């Protein structure tokens, strides 16, 4: 079976200033992601996580290797991929509904359908009562829900999420994680989610790809199985959760130390 997304020997080097050496952000990334999987990517700061997502989103081109989406090389952005960033990037002069409709205008969905679809997706993220509010009238968590609704409304196959909950308080983050899982189960999207949070990775991922410090390579892909979780149980308190958490923490620890060492050498140079 072909993977939905396939990174094949993907490298990315950013040119240096003047004659200076470039920055090798990613090197030899090999990763296959099946359709419908929730994949989380973790790694030390600056290891190239956002770069990896930008390449998949078609915002950047790889220096080496290729990324295949449904077996075809990614050559640019497209409506088959929706992105949610850490910052909400909502239009302040538009209501929640207007923001969701905005993405649909861009792909030429007729007006009446736009309104209908925007309502449907705002309901999916639990914001039916807030569709006429402007971003400044919404909490951080609600704004991020609007951003998620906007990305889902044009029905991309793949949802790319770059630390979407990082700016939220712990409680809002946890409830949005639960909500995202519910939405993912309902919609069957393929999700690639970047985070710094180990707990977040274990809570959300079916697999967690741990990257090395820069240049980022895939150090290990950890399958997550939290066992049978009953509806009134907090999965975060299960022994399986602690086990996976510790595994990923151990893999990251060495890489973070290496990244800090690199940073010290760079500032000393
Ligand atoms: N447009 C660019 N031009 C030059 N260098 C870049 C560019 N974008 C990223 N880099 C460099 O590439 C490396 C990887 O950056 P990237 O933002 O992908 O890492 P990250 O893992 O997402 O970091 P963080 O966890 O801190 O958000 C960094 O050293 C960064 O400075």
Uncertain segments:
none
Q: What name does the CATH topology of the largest domain carry?
A: Rossmann fold
Biggest β-sheet, characterized? 6 strands, mixed
Strand arrangement in the largest pleated sheet: 6-7-8-3-9-10
Rg (CA only): 19 Å
The CATH architecture name of the largest domain reads 3-Layer(aba) Sandwich
Q: What is the total tally of β strands?
A: 10
Q: Element order, helices and strands?
A: EEEHEEEHHHEHEHEEH
Mean pLDDT: 91
Helix content: 25-40%
The total domain count is 2
Strand content: 15-25%
Quaternary structure: single chain
Globular, elongated, flat, extended or rod-shaped: what is the shape?
globular
CATH superfamily (homologous) name of the largest domain: P-loop containing nucleotide triphosphate hydrolases
Describe the structure in your own words:
It comes from Streptomyces genisteinicus. Keywords: ATP-binding, Nucleotide-binding, Transport. This is ABC transporter ATP-binding protein. GO terms for molecular function: ATP binding; ATP hydrolysis activity. InterPro entries: AAA+_ATPase, ABC_transporter-like_ATP-bd, ABC_transporter-like_CS, ABC_transporter_ATP-bind, P-loop_NTPase. With about 270 residues, the protein is α/β, with parallel strands linked by helices. The chain folds into two domains: about 5-80 and about 155-269, P-loop containing nucleotide triphosphate hydrolases (Rossmann fold), CATH 3.40.50; about 90-155, no CATH class. Helix content is about 40%, strand content about 20%. It has seven helices and ten strands. It has helices spanning about 50-55, 95-105, 110-125, 140-155, 170-185, 200-205, 240-269; strands at about 5-15, 25-35, 40, 65-70, 70-75, 80-85, 160, 190-195, 205-210, 220-225. A six-stranded mixed beta sheet has the order 6-7-8-3-9-10, sandwiched between helices. A four-stranded antiparallel beta sheet has the order 2-1-4-5, with helices on one face. The chain is globular and about 55 Å long. The N and C termini lie far apart (about 50 Å). The mean pLDDT is about 90. Bound molecules: adenosine-5'-triphosphate. Adenosine-5'-triphosphate (ATP) binds near residues 43, 50 and 51. Adenosine-5'-triphosphate binds next to β2 and α1.
């Amino acid at each position: 079976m072909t993977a939905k997304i396939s990174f094949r020997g993907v490298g990315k080097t950013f040119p240096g200033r003047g004659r200076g050496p470039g920055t090798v952000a990613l090197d030899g990334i090999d990763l296959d992601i099946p359709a419908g999987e929730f994949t989380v990517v973790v790694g030390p700061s600056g290891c190239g996580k956002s770069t990896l997502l930008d390449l998949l989103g078609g915002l950047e081109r790889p220096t080496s290797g290729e990324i295949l989406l449904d077996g075809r090389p990614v050559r640019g952005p497209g409506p088959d991929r929706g992105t949610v960033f850490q910052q909400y990037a909502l239009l302040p002069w538009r209501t929640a509904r207007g923001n969701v409709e905005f993405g649909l205008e861009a792909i030429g969905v007729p007006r009446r359908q736009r309104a209908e679809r925007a309502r449907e997706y705002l309901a999916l993220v639990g914001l039916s009562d807030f569709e006429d509010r402007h971003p400044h009238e919404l909490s951080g968590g609600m704004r991020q829900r609007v951003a998620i609704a906007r990305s889902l409304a044009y029905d991309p196959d793949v949802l790319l999420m770059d630390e979407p909950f990082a700016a939220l308080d712990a409680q809002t983050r946890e409830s949005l994680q639960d909500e995202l899982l519910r939405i993912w189960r309902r919609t069957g999207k393929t999700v690639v989610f970047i985070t710094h949070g180990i707990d977040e990775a274990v809570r959300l991922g079916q697999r967690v790809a741990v990257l090395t410090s820069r240049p980022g390579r895939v150090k290990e892909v950890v399958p997550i199985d939290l066992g049978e979780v009953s509806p009134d149980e907090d999965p975060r308190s299960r022994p399986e959760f602690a086990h996976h958490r510790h595994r990923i923490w151990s893999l990251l620890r060495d890489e973070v130390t290496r990244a800090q060492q690199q940073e010290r050498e760079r500032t000393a140079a």
